[in-house]
From TrEMBL:
Pathway annotation: Metabolic intermediate biosynthesis; chorismate biosynthesis; chorismate from D-erythrose 4-phosphate and phosphoenolpyruvate: step 2/7
GO cellular component: cytoplasm
HAMAP family: DHQ_synthase (MF_00110)
NCBIfam families the UniProt entry points to: aroB
Catalytic reactions on record: 7-phospho-2-dehydro-3-deoxy-D-arabino-heptonate = 3-dehydroquinate + phosphate
Protein's name according to its UniProt entry: 3-dehydroquinate synthase
Gene3D superfamilies, A to Z: 3.40.50.1970, Dehydroquinate synthase-like - alpha domain (1.20.1090.10)
Major localization listed first in the record, in broad terms: cytoplasm
Domain 3-dehydroquinate synthase C-terminal residues, every copy: 173-315
Residues that coordinate or bind Zn(2+): E176, H239, H255
Name of encoding gene: aroB
InterPro entries recorded: Dehydroquinate_synthase, DHQ_synth_AroB, DHQ_synth_fam, DHQS/DOIS_N, DHQS_C
Length: 355
């Protein structure tokens, strides 16, 4: 079993382990009595595929952006209340990023905070959302506007779940892996470029290696900047445009696929504005092209799209904030970007990269 430690400087009590292995979490879930009294929020599809892992009264959640709201949080809180959950109980979040975000937020506010354990079942949640303590829900058409920083007690990553992950969900998660490579790790970038066959076959040793590396990178960022005041902002690479794409498409485009488009289109915008060089733009297109991503996006509703960018929780009074890659393995933050310049970029529909 691989282990990554997230060390939070302000308190060893809040530091935690990420455990990564194949086919082990079923026994963990069956033996949850070891965690005092446990309560489970489980993705409905995961439950149907792995029903033998679960027993007793659980909260089933149909994962969709339309359910990622305060109504669902309220339902989970009622579930905990009806089960007479106590302050020293533990809430397990078993599913993808939506389950982890919503259940984690509910855990952070029930009785002013009970323990929760992340059991991510998608590649995206394994490499990104289950680690770092970001919890929250959407408010109207603005993603993740309401939430809290609330660290899990533990993260249990079982690559067994990848065997039943639909292809579009796998590519959604792989986009976040590529994000980490572009921001922090040129070696990971090269590994992804030269090992496509093993990656797309989801070979277990390869996936454990990739997941562990992303968790190490995420842990390093969280340890330095837990509440996103500095370096953690870089993890929003592709997310400013990506979130707007999700909203404009009425969430027909999955998060990671929207982020992939966002990474490229933000880079193209930045290149045209002289913020980055052509080589990194080519490198971005190269790796996404290697894995056959569609990087184009034609805006459906400009008012909705630009409002989503302007309402982005990362925006500041001085303007829009973009996380960018100045070179493979090196991220930068650009602040004070005028929203009108972004509007003009998308109105121009300049989808093809410069030659």
């Amino acid at each position: 079993m691989e282990k990554v430690r997230v060390n939070l400087n302000y308190s060893k009590d809040y530091s935690y382990d990420i455990l990564i292995d194949h086919d082990f979490v079923g026994n963990e879930l069956k033996g949850i009595s070891n965690y005092n009294r446990a309560h489970l929020v489980v993705d409905k599809n995961v439950y149907e595929l792995y029903a033998s892992f679960f027993g007793g009264d659980i909260f089933l959640l149909t994962s969709s952006e339309h359910n990622k709201n305060l109504d669902t949080v309220y339902d989970i809180l009622k579930f905990l209340k009806n089960k007479k959950a106590l302050r020293n109980d533990t809430l397990f979040a078993v599913g993808g990023g939506i389950v982890g975000d919503v259940a984690g937020f509910a855990a952070s506010i029930y009785m002013r905070g009970i323990s929760f354990i992340q059991v991510p079942t998608t590649l995206l949640s394994m490499v990104d959302s289950s680690v770092g303590g970001k919890t929250g829900v959407n408010l109207g058409d603005v993603k993740n506007l309401v939430g809290s920083f609330y660290q899990p007690k533990k993260v249990l990553i079982d690559t067994l779940f990848l065997a039943t992950l639909p292809e579009d969900e796998f590519k959604s998660g792989l986009a976040e892996v590529i994000k980490y490579a572009l921001l922090f790790d040129k070696e990971l970038y090269e590994f992804l470029v030269h090992n496509k066959s093993d990656v797309v076959k989801r070979k277990n040793d390869v996936m454990i290696k990739i997941i562990k590396r992303c968790c190490e990178l995420k842990a390093e960022v969280v340890e330095e900047d837990e509440t996103e005041q500095g370096i953690r902002k870089l993890l929003n690479l592709g997310h400013t445009f990506g979130h707007a794409i999700e909203v404009d498409s009425d969430h027909e485009i999955k998060h990671g696929l929207a982020v992939a488009k966002g990474v490229y289109l933000e880079a193209l915008f930045a290149y045209e504005k002289g913020m980055i060089g052509k080589k990194v733009l080519d490198d971005i297109e190269n790796i996404f092209g290697t894995y056959d991503y569609d990087l184009n996006y034609k805006v459906r509703d400009f008012a909705l799209f630009t409002n989503a960018i302007g309402s982005d929780k990362k925006a500041m009074s001085s303007g829009i904030v973009l996380a960018l890659t100045s070179d493979v393995g090196s991220g930068i933050i650009k602040e004070g970007i005028d929203l009108d310049s972004i509007k003009k970029f998308f109105e121009g529909a300049r989808w093809m990269r410069p030659q």
